[in-house]
Amino acid sequence: MKTAFLLAAATVATAKGFANSEDGFAQWALHNDAKFTIEETFQRFHIWKGNYAIVTKHNKEADAGLHTFRLGMNSLSALSHEEYKAKLSYRRNATENAPVGVFDSSTVGKAPAAIDWRKSDSPKLVSPIKNQRQCGSCWAFSAVEAMESAAAVHTNSTVQIGAPQQLVDCVRHGKDTCNVGGEMHDGYLEVIKEGGLDTEKSYPYTARSPFWRHCKFKPADIIPGTDSFKGYTQVPIGNEKALLAASATIPTISIGIDASDNKFQLYTSGVYNVPTCSSTELDHGVAIVGYGSYQGTTPYWLVKNSWGLDWGNKGYIYMSKDDKNQCGVASDATFPIY
Predict the structure, then answer these.
(1) Annotated active-site residue in 138, 170, 277, 327
(2) Which one-letter DSSP state was computed for residue 201?
(3) Which of 168, 104, 174 is nearest to 134 (CA)?
(4) Per-10-residue mean pLDDT for the chain, 338 residues long?
(5) pTM metric for this prediction
(6) What backbone phi and psi angles, to 5 degrees, belong to 128?
């Protein structure tokens, strides 16, 4: 059993105000409920200080106008870059099932200049931020975000929180484990095959992989509307204009992105813009829930992550928009259809 060991702290800090010291690390650990053995504590403190240096350097450059976003000491700050990248779990399967069709943006009128689907409250169409914790299940969370929102639109009712654990347990008979990862398309098709998506309440998230063939889908507990999906549609690959048209009409769109940079790991505010971010090497599943212009000048995609409220801007990130499909925001954008 792990023994909780924290360096002595004089006071408890607020969310981001941690000093670069042993006390600061202890305050960060208390804030994030991080528990380490004595041996782990010194290793984690060393990694944490290295990330602290990255945050400090970047934010000084941001203050000088060199970056459009800032970093902070969040819940992932005691992970090395290698450990962080291992957490990313979007994996394309070799035998990918084709979508029912490709989204036709010509069917949509002129898109508004900005939209934030979180603000829709009659009915509410975007669920609260979730936390996948240590399990590499981003793909399952991304697919669930799109399905639970689509069902809310279809039934004209308040969004119900779906069960990512159902996908982790049931897709490919549980082969897409916490350590293997998976892809959102398979999540859609599994729900279609089973006949619905269970609620989170009926199929709680455990952040663990199942035993072989240990799927516990409960047909009686599905979210209304999730038993009627016919397939999924893909936004034309790399086409941000088509993605804009889709986002103007679809409250939640599942996307795969390149999140491998340590600046994504430590992101806290502003518009994430990293020119070296790949549009083809995708490793993380998230969801678009809107778009706009940051402080009236910098276009962004409003992206919902699954790393809890402490990461980013209360669980969200503004990602660069209309910038050569940076990070692959439009490389694998899909949503379920009826």
Answers:
(1) 138
(2) T
(3) 168
(4) 36 58 93 91 96 97 98 96 91 65 91 97 96 94 98 98 96 83 93 97 91 83 97 96 98 98 98 97 97 96 97 98 98 96
(5) 0.92
(6) -65, 165
User: Is position 138 annotated as part of the catalytic site?
Assistant: yes
- Is residue 76 within 8 A of residue 266, CB to CB? The reply is yes
Annotated catalytic residue within 262, 305, 325, 327? 305
Residue 275's CB is within 10 A of a number of other CB atoms, namely 8
Told to judge if 185 belongs to the known catalytic residues of this protein, a careful annotator would answer no
Contact 94, 330 (CB under 8 A): no
Q: Provide the token pair at 194.
A: 């089973």
Distance CA(227)–CA(222), nearest Å, equals: 8
The two structure tokens encoding residue 306? 């699954």
User: What's the CA gap between 112 and 122, in Å, rounded?
Assistant: 19
Residue 192's H or E segment, with its range, is helix 184-194
123 preceded by cis ω (within 30°)? yes
Take residue 176 and report the two structure tokens written for it. Answer: 């897409």
Catalytic, out of 31, 67, 185, 284 = 284
Where would I find the H helices in 32-179? 38-63, 81-87, 138-155, 164-170
Q: Report the pLDDT value the prediction gives residue 37, as an integer from 0 to 100.
A: 93
Structure tokens at 230: 């016919």
- Write the pLDDT tens digit of every residue in 90-141: 887 655 566 678 999 998 999 999 999 999 988 999 999 999 998 999 999 9
Give whole-number Cα distances, 15 to 26, 30, 72, 254, 309, in Å: 13, 10, 10, 29, 11
Q: Give the pair of three-digit tokens for residue 324.
A: 């050569």
Q: Closest Cα partner for 107 from 283, 3, 249, 236?
A: 249
Cβ-proximal residues to 40 (8 Å cutoff; 6+ apart), any chain: none
**Is residue 305 annotated as a catalytic residue, yes or no?**
yes
In whole angstroms, how far apart are CA 317 and each of 161, 171, 271, 288? Answer: 21, 28, 7, 10
Q: What CA dihedral angle connects 223, 190, 217 and 164, to 10 degrees?
A: -70
Cβ-Cβ contacts under 8 Å for 236 (sequence gap 6 or more): 102, 103, 105, 242, 330
Q: Which of 327, 264, 303 minimizes the C-alpha distance to 79?
A: 264
Q: Measured in whole angstroms, how far is the alpha carbon of residue 283 from the centre of its chain?
A: 11
